[in-house]
Automatic annotation (TrEMBL):
Lineage, opening ranks: Bacteria, Bacillati, Actinomycetota, Actinomycetes, Kitasatosporales
Identification of the protein by name: DUF202 domain-containing protein
Chief location of this protein within or outside the cell: membrane
Subcellular location(s) per record: Endomembrane system
Record-annotated membrane-spanning stretches: 6-30, 37-58, 78-100
UniProt organism field: Streptomyces humicola
Domain DUF202: 1-59
Alphabetical list of InterPro entries matching this protein: DUF202
Pfam families given in the database record: DUF202
Keywords: Membrane, Transmembrane, Transmembrane helix
Membrane topology term: Multi-pass membrane protein
Amino acid sequence: MAAERTFLAWIRTSFTLLATGAAVSSLPLLPARELRGVVGLVCVSAAAPVAVTAHAQWRGWCATAARYGLPRPHRTALLLTSIVLLVTATLAGAVGVRLATTHRSGVCRRPAVCGARV
């Protein structure tokens, strides 16, 4: 049970990084739009390695448990959680990069998107 709690704590941290990246890049918390985009992209980009690390640690614990004959946790739910988070982080990163390149140097190539500037 401790391994699953640790895994879920890492996943919670990864989701927090995703949410923080989305919030920072969309809310006017920082004065410069470019700075918001960079900070948001860094947060979103950090979420995927955190999820991968969580899964790697959990798999290591499962291997140790199997070696000593201890009961192993259910793999399907934790694997599915890791995959969903990795896909979400990848998509969020791609959208962040797309938005960062669209709003570069004050010139907007998509007026419908730039019309609602913050």
